[in-house]
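$ fold --in a.seq
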Amino acid sequence: MGDLTLVINLGSSSLKAALVDSTGAFLWHSGRSIAAGEHLEDVLRQWLEPELEPHRERIGLIGHRVVHGGERFTAPTQITENVLKTLEQLTPLAPLHNPPALMGMAWGRAWAPSLPQWACFDTAFHSTLPAAAYTYAIPAEFRQKGFRRFGFHGINHQHIAETVADRWSEQDQDPSTLRLISAHLGAGASLAAIHGGRCIDTTMGFTPLEGLVMATRSGTIDPGMMLELMREGYSTDQMAAMLQKQSGLKGLTGFGGDMREIREAAEQGHASAIKALDVFRHRLVQLLGAMAASLGGVDVLALTGGVGEHDRTLHGELARALSWWGNYATMVIPADEEGMIARLCQRQNDRGPSAAIG
């Protein structure tokens, strides 16, 4: 078997791919956006296949990122016909993200039918949430249909948890007692409260709409607003577009959700940009406080994602706002979904097929 893991990370309008060796080193790592009207199958065939051809004989397995695994998938899972059928049934839970992942799996099975393929789920790391954290206060008939909090960005939150635990151990600290908040701050944003390596709370819920203010997503809002919009005649498609693509920082600024552009506009006195930053920061600090409460204190705050890693102004703002936490460490850790997927797949492939389907 080859020594390389091919990682396919498909978003709603992007494709990232990587070749990772058994030591975790990247041999190749690239990505590209998928333009409106462009077919994913064509991108896979015309862009990805030529990139991979020089390394084809060294590829031993393929790992895929899947946003939503529901309650059925709580660990990396080898892809079989039955698994594919189950994943198709989960498509309504992540209609923008799961279908591209399924296309990627279909491509992989056609391109290299003899290679084992594995699916890694953004929801899996949050499968350790206690019932009190994942249960919505709604009637039993709806809870029995699967309406509960799942959490997302779990692949990168797990990468952060493992990285911080390693650094903690190097300082002769016991990682089993580590109280960590992982702050994944990018176009999508979520927090995870992690105690001793296990996620015990998170900010996203049944979908990636809950929680923090994001680039174009609203984050948590009063559901009564949605009821009012329904009474006014708005369709579910209209509300979905508004909440997912027209809200968040974009909705607050009126011109976009890129944090760098918003910072520049705010420095020039743009009132809506200043308000957007105030709202973003207020919700972030509010929910960081909630995660700290779930943990009973904080040892490490880890910042990751495009905003979390690079916005130095935010780093200073958080240090001032969270001074009441007392003695805690802040770490800035680059996101690494592709590397984490490779590690998860290699570990699970060495163990044999996963029994992660209930």
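$ fold --in b.seq
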Amino acid sequence: MTTSERGTIRIAESRLWETFGSIGLLSAHRGLAPWPYTNWGRASRRSLMRADVTIPGWLVHLYRVSGGTLPSFLLPVPSSAPQAGLAEEIATLRSVSPARVREELERWFPQGVPVEVRPLHADPEARIAELCAFLPRYWRAALAPFGGPLRAVTEDDILLRARVLATEGPEKLLGGLRGRLSRHGEVLRLNVRTPGGYGPGGTVPGGGGPGGGTGVGAGSPHGSRVVLVPLVFGRGASLVGSAPNGVTAVSYQAEGAAVLAGEIQPGRRADEPARGDRLEILLGRSRAAVVRALVAPTTTSDLATALGLAPSTVSEHLTSLVAAGVVRRRRAGVRVLYELDGSGVVLLRHLDNWRRVNAPSCETS
């Protein structure tokens, strides 16, 4: 388990959280999953069907009524131990007390636990045991074939965030999490809502502070009070877990989820080109994705959002493509737009064999 720490903020990888994030994506979309998860969604559904693995109905219902979050009893705070993995996290999940399960469910559903979730409320021990048996089977069928790209994206994102934390401080780091967490002096505010208004929605629990926020100053007796968990399947997910010592863990979308956009071959490295894809073989996977996305003028930030790449990575690719004469840069008011130049159009037309992407209808000079 890869981690990075500074003061009261820690960044940690979690296979369990990634697993729940992917289950949430499948639960929210009964048909095709959105880009860049479409191909993964197709492959994982086929694999799950072949392996006869079915997501528990109560878990699907929790996702659908909550808009992408889960009760914290399902989300143990990731450990900083380097040897920790899915099995260790599942062991922690298995130890959750039935009383805690019932209490959180009743707070989630103050008007009464819905019929779909009553099996979990009625016998938490049995349902959690079944969940712990299901999770490794799900991982092997749906995620293990893509383990290489998933690991590479997560590790790269942790290194990126750790560098920001070390060189620019917590405010800059938190500002890049798209509003999930905000810091006001020594108070962290968590912007997540849950059914019934219960739980961590609005604040980070575990301490005092204005508005119910939590002070996370360097003098905290628990050391790292906030754990940030990057998820490749973090889009639309708002996972929040807490530990008895006051530490809170929060998921966020990792940069680089676009590695799942193509026809990924299991075990391939994050930027390894697809077999037979001439554009990716020439440019590399992420740079080819930038070229394909420039069939219409766009900005660096819009490209980064669309492709799931770090803005710094997109900027580096654009600088190289402009220098090579493949892309041109122009200003439109306050915005700087990038688009394919004439040679870029020719390159795309002659080398692109990704049928879902059309070359521009006219060339620019």
